[in-house]
Amino acid sequence: MRTLLSNVVLIFLLLGNVDSLLAFEPDTSKYPKQLQVNAGYYNLGSIDEIYSYNLYSGSDFCYGLKYTYGKRPVRQIISIHFSTINRRPHSLILAENLVASDARERILNSFVADAFYTCQFPIELKGADYLRFWVTGTWLTTFNITLNSYGTPELVQSGLAPGAFLETNFKRHNFHCQLSVPIISWTLRNSYSLSMTQNFEKINTFNFIRSNDQLQFPNTLLAVYSNIGYVFSLSSRFNIECEYDFRYIYNSSPRKLESVSGIYSFGLTYKF
Is domain 29-94+105-271 annotated with CATH 2.40.128.90? Predict the structure, then answer.
């Protein structure tokens, strides 16, 4: 047993010093590759007037991955989040009793997920050596599927979002923030009430998508995606990161959908 533990310790020591052991020269034409595993808390609230005028909100744990790579000057980032959230109804009129004492409360069991592919292009800021500014382009895809209504979608969105990214570094510390706004999106929403799930169950998936998808612009789909984060460098190989992601969506077609979400996450990053 003691020999096994000694071997495990030796393996970790070798991995932690692999660069010096192999004497590889770093490739300065490329950004270091980084793989992050993160976990956090996902808060989601929305009003979908196709289904109800009430606010449905809830929160639960979420999990994600982020992979950073690229050849200078362009930096590329792929990230995903996913969670399953039970959302309960809340009246917008606080004095109103939304659910009668003998009524069965309707809970939306929502599967939420997103995937982002971002390219960052550096822009030189003269006289601000401690700041780095990047123009960004993001291809984003988000899902909000109601699992307990035969998988009917509250909103599926895939689109292109230009934006900006700003970061600053102090020794082992990094602070950053980003803002992106979609300019064109393909969206999918359920055009009839979720209470009509017996109809959805019988509809062919392809026909459903063809009948309910739209190509939308900011005049009917206004969305803002932003985040702010802090990174602390533990070593040449590992970072830890705390991040908050905020998303706001206002969709007016076919009927109003207003959604706000926030994700608090903590991640461990391995650089290689």
Answer: yes
